[in-house]
From TrEMBL:
The keyword Cytoplasm does not apply. It comes from the Bacteria. It holds the Pfam family ABC_tran. This is ABC transporter ATP-binding protein. The keyword Transmembrane helix does not apply. Residues 4-230 form the ABC transporter domain. Keywords: ATP-binding, Nucleotide-binding. GO terms for molecular function: ATP binding.
Amino acid sequence: MEKVVIEKMDFSYPKKALLFEGLDLELSRGKVVGLLGKNGAGKSTLMRLMAGLLKPTKGVVLCDGEMAFDREPHFLDQLMFIPEQIALPDHLKVGEYAKVYRDFYLGFDEIRIQHLLSDFQLGLKERVSNLSYGQQKKLQIAIGLSTRAKLILLDEPTNGLDIPSKTAFRKLISANIQEDQLVVISTHQIKDIDHLIDQVVILEEGKIKLQADLDALEEAFVFGQGAVAPLDAIYTETHLLGARYIAKSQGESEGSPDLEMLFQAVMEGRIQGQYLSTSNPVMQ
Ligand SMILES: Nc1ncnc2c1ncn2[C@@H]1O[C@H](COP(=O)(O)OP(=O)(O)OP(=O)(O)O)[C@@H](O)[C@H]1O
């Protein structure tokens, strides 16, 4: 998958006000994108539009130039969408369930699924219906990463995972994603995707408030802390022991952006726009 391009898209659920209006977004391959937003911001809906499960009211969602909603067989062969709520068939065992996907995805990686299931401590002979919610999520993630789909959409994948599984999730995503894949992870648990994503997209009330590559953010801003925030700080959080802040960078690099602070700064309208590595930052 080279690109997902959303152009001038409107979308509303039947008999509801427009959720998206004139939305533009372009996502390129080789990236793990974190899609953030508060409850009801439209993350799951955007995922379903990208998966071609919903039809834009106006405008287009194009995956490598083809309308996602057409759901052509070669698009489906490149797509893996793991929704937040998963309904797994009761009667199958883990191995049998994985085989359903092996038969569907031409590039399914037999070795990888074995490794991933073992990393997540899931036995091939376990009945899917006997797995806990978190184990079912892990099974879906293991299968998703083994399909070698070019577009992987994970809606709230870390919901229900315990702390070791969240750590394993981060490691497994990083280790199993290739340059020709695009992974979009929606979450409101920002910490879960820290040190995992390359790009962040922040949605609020159906609008894209920020699209930024983390390395571009690192160049543009300093995410710091100290006894007091500098006078020119764009965003400040004060604590008993001092302040955490975001300021414009004067050329110094201060490590990776703090996503939680970034999210708050965007929600308060302190930072907006596009910060992409390939182009100059565009402030809106
Ligand atoms: N099937 C539906 N029919 C009607 N309205 C819907 C439907 N699904 C979602 N909505 C509405 O669309 C808006 C966006 O919902 P969506 O689930 O996309 O948000 P979200 O950002 O994923 O939220 P959350 O973080 O709570 O999962 C909400 O106002 C929601 O009530």
